[in-house]
């Protein structure tokens, strides 16, 4: 059993790490690098994206034929972790949510004509995209609670309803929309593609949130007659639930990949400080109580890394990795919060201030146990697998 990365993937990982260390981390201390919503300023982003492209580090998850890096999921895990050692990292490399998940699912299931129109501009960084599924008093972790409806009309569909917490919607041009097309339990949902310039929909508000925001925020949007032609149905009518499962499987795991990088960075910042900070005649790193804190946080991150990499390996073998992704999602969400909270505690007032990015990370980290399925839902998924599979739940290999 070999836990080493293939040399060609490790070489890319090292290049990403060097770019992050040299070009991104130094920007975090400059308030001019941020926009009004605490994300990287668009002017700075545009410049750094050009540099990432020039370095051949652009959209590593996409095929080389589309201008990406052609990495397998295992390679994505290693490189995404390095990217998010900077809070600016993923979006600079065009590997941030929700574009990342949208690109991956479009590459898997869209027709060639749909890829040319809807996917390639996202890969090129020309447009942002959003995945519109979550609804007020409707679907969140459970897509079957979708109430937004698409009714058949001549040549297409007319959509009415409401969505909320749609990440990036304020800036997005390309949307993937989940709507109900029948009352069938399994085949009642359909995914549609639409452009922001089409009439029949509107942004009600950009919802204020606890943490820093992605570009375009998290929006509540209403549909009051949006018309979508048949050619913009993704997969087939009634395939919306299947498409959602295809998209969210890998997308949940890419969250874990990025969160591991953020957790590592938080510990790096703390370790640098406690190595020199003295209190009552002793450096903090030499105190047993402090060693216990950082040791526990580091161990939990490493457990998360192993679970994430196993799930990535299963996906590369052609499996669905539902169990593995749920395990990684639960453990990494907790490990991220543990590492950031530990860092803030050890930094003291410095960690609570904006002198380091740790307070930014702390506010961001709390969402990890909620987004793309609450931890409680993933535990329920695992319990159901255990009930069905019994002792086979623990088998080796890529099955199950």
Model description:
This protein has 12 helices and 10 strands. The chain is of the alpha+beta class. The protein folds into 3 domains: 7-123, Acyl-CoA dehydrogenase/oxidase, N-terminal domain (Butyryl-Coa Dehydrogenase, subunit A, domain 1, Orthogonal Bundle), CATH 1.10.540.10; 129-238, Butyryl-CoA Dehydrogenase, subunit A, domain 2, CATH 2.40.110.10; 241-394, Butyryl-CoA Dehydrogenase, subunit A, domain 3. The model has no long low-confidence stretch (mean pLDDT 96).
List keywords for this structure.
400 residues; alpha+beta; Butyryl-Coa Dehydrogenase, subunit A, domain 1; Butyryl-CoA Dehydrogenase, subunit A, domain 2; Butyryl-CoA Dehydrogenase, subunit A, domain 3; 4-stranded mixed beta sheet; 4-stranded antiparallel beta sheet; 12 helices
Briefly say what this structure is.
This protein has 400 residues and is an alpha+beta fold. It has helices at 7-24, 42-54, 73-83, 89-92, 99-109, 112-123, 240-274, 288-316, 322-347, 349-352, 358-365, 375-389; strands at 129-132, 149-153, 156-167, 174-180, 189-195, 201-206, 218-229, 233-234, 278-279, 282-283.
């Amino acid at each position: 059993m070999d836990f080493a990365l293939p040399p060609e993937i490790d070489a890319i990982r090292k290049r990403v790490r060097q770019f992050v260390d040299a070009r991104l981390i130094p920007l975090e201390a400059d308030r001019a690098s941020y926009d009004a919503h605490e994300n990287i300023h668009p002017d700075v982003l545009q410049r750094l994206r050009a540099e990432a492209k020039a370095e051949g580090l652009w959209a590593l998850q996409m095929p080389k034929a589309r201008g990406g890096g052609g990495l397998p999921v295992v390679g994505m895990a290693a490189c995404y972790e390095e990217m998010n050692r900077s809070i600016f990292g993923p979006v600079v490399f065009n590997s941030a949510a929700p574009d990342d998940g949208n690109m991956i699912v479009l590459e898997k299931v869209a027709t060639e004509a749909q890829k040319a129109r809807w996917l390639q501009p996202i890969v090129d960084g020309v447009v942002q995209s959003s995945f519109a599924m979550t609804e007020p008093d409707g679907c969140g972790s459970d897509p079957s609670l979708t109430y937004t409806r698409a009714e058949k009309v001549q040549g297409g569909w007319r959509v009415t309803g409401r969505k909320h917490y749609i990440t990036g919607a304020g800036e997005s041009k390309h949307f993937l929309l989940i709507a109900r097309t029948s009352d069938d339990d399994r085949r009642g949902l359909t995914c549609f593609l639409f452009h922001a310039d089409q009439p029949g929909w509107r942004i009600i508000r950009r919802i204020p949130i606890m943490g820093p925001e992605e570009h375009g925020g998290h929006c509540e949007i209403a549909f009051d007659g949006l018309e979508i032609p048949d050619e913009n149905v993704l997969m087939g009518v009634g395939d919306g639930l299947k498409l959602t499962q295809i998209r969210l499987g890998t997308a949940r795991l890419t969250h874990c990949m990025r969160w591991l990088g953020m957790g590592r960075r938080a510990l790096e910042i703390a370790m640098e400080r406690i190595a020199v900070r003295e209190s009552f005649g002793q450096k903090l790193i030499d105190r047993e109580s402090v060693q216990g804190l950082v040791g526990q946080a580091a161990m939990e991150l490493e457990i998360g890394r192993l679970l994430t990499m196993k799930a990535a390996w299963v996906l590369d073998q052609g499996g669905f990795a539902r169990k593995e992704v749920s395990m990684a999602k639960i453990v990494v969400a907790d490990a991220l919060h543990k590492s950031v909270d530990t860092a803030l505690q050890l930094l003291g007032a410095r960690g609570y201030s904006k002198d380091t990015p740790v307070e930014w990370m702390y506010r961001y980290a709390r969402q990890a146990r909620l987004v793309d399925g609450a931890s409680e839902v993933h535990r329920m998924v695992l319990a159901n697998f255990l009930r069905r599979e019994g002792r086979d739940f623990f088998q080796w290999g890529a099955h199950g």
